[in-house]
Amino acid sequence: MRDTSGRFVYRSYMGKTITIDDDAYKLLLSLKQGAHDSFTKVIRRHVHKPAETAGELLDAMDTFPPPPVDLDLLKRVEKARGRRSVRRN
Question: Which residues share a beta bridge with 2?
């Protein structure tokens, strides 16, 4: 790689080799968000260290994005609230 002055720049990124099953690989691959997304980024987005205290849990919740919401499903649930299903004997 060359920087803007024309000098050669070598960057080395340390990595680890891991062995995973094919189904786990396919899952990680399906979670990639484009060609420049790395498996490291995928894992960091989807795997989180369990909180050991309530304070850690609250801190972690502040950093997570809001969960995806299916607005059509939410409307159906709200519409159906309070209704009871017919009892069958």
Answer: 8
Task: Give the closest residue to 13 by CA, choosing from 49, 46, 38, 47.
Answer: 38
pLDDT, tens digit, 9 for 90 and up, residues 20-78: 999 999 999 999 999 999 999 999 988 888 889 999 989 988 888 888 899 999 999 99
Alpha helices in 1-89 (DSSP H): 22-31, 39-46, 54-63, 71-80
* Displacement of CA 18 from its chain's centroid (Å): 20
Q: Where are the domains of the chain?
A: 22-65
Q: Contact, 30 vs 42, CB < 8 A?
A: no
Cβ distance 1 to 10 under 8 Å?
yes
Residue 63, SS3 per DSSP: helix
